[in-house]
Design brief:
alpha+beta; Cathepsin D, subunit A, domain 1; 2 domains; elongated
């Protein structure tokens, strides 16, 4: 009996799998997600899935074209803003997630006596894709939690001195400087408290202290909007001379905005840093 392939169903299945794979990849690497670009990348993947069947791509040609399209999807979803090596790494991870998702679909279908090819027919069990997606998301999030860095040391150079702070790594810290998009690191004032520096005291206040800062510190300052339990606040952040992260045996310089705070508690740490800076 001849198998009938419905292009609309095939597109939707590939679109769904690519959407999940790309989203999970960006999630793992803490890349800011633009959902319009994410959907555009998944549309490209869905269209390729249909074309691969229509033109009967197989062997090396199928592998090469699939790799190329995967790379293009990552470029679309992430706006091509990272280095080439980073995009290649993201593409490889996306392939791995796609394999995990496809394996979950196959396993679930086999439990019901179906084959993966059944997904390409008009009577495709779409709930299978949803269930496989849920399983894949769970596995990826578990791996991400287990392998993630929980703490790192940072050496902040500013005000003519260098100070080392123990920072809590938090995936929920998503604050960024609105103009440049730089991530924001929150550090207790005590790290620089021994300086008896007027600017250190002023930086711990609100936006009303901006005009009171010294010219050099004012030039480096940026206003940062945050939302907390007691409402919205406008804080003053500054660009340090240097910010070095010490992660395991690696040391790297990162471009972040630093906000000094006087009363916040960070569960025994000197501050908090977004996990996106670590990866």
């Amino acid at each position: 009996m001849k198998t009938v392939v419905y292009a609309d169903v095939l597109f939707l299945i590939n679109f769904g799998m690519d959407l999940i794979s790309i989203w999970l990849t960006l999630y793992i690497f803490s890349v800011r997600i633009n959902y319009l670009k994410l959907f555009a990348a998944a549309v490209a993947g869905g269209a390729y899935g249909v074309a691969a069947v229509l033109f009967d791509l197989s062997g090396f040609l199928s592998l090469a074209s699939s790799a190329g399209v995967s790379f293009i999807m990552i470029l679309i979803a992430s706006s091509g803003s990272a280095k080439l090596s980073v995009h290649i790494k993201h593409t490889i991870v996306m392939w791995g997630i796609g394999t995990l998702l496809g394996g979950a679909v196959t396993a679930i279908c086999s439990l019901g006596g179906n084959s993966y090819s059944d997904l390409r027919t008009h009577n495709a069990p779409f709930f299978v894709l949803a269930l496989a997606a849920a399983l894949s998301v769970g596995v990826v999030r578990l791996i991400s939690v287990i392998s993630s860095v929980k703490q790192c040391d940072a050496t902040v150079t500013s005000f003519g001195v260098s100070r080392t702070a123990s920072l809590l790594v938090d995936s929920g810290c998503l604050v960024r400087e609105p103009i440049s998009g730089r991530p924001v690191v929150f550090i207790k004032k005590e790290v620089f408290g021994d300086l008896n520096n007027k600017d250190v005291e002023l930086l711990c206040g609100g936006a009303e202290n901006l005009e009171k800062l010294s010219p050099d510190t004012k030039r480096r300052s940026r206003l940062i909007g945050v939302t907390r339990g007691n409402g919205e606040a406008l804080l003053i952040g500054f660009i340090p001379d240097d910010l070095l992260l010490h992660i395991k045996k690696e040391t790297k310089s990162v471009g972040c905005i630093v906000v000094l705070e006087d009363v916040r508690d960070y569960d025994g740490y000197d501050g908090i840093i977004p996990s996106s800076v670590i990866k």
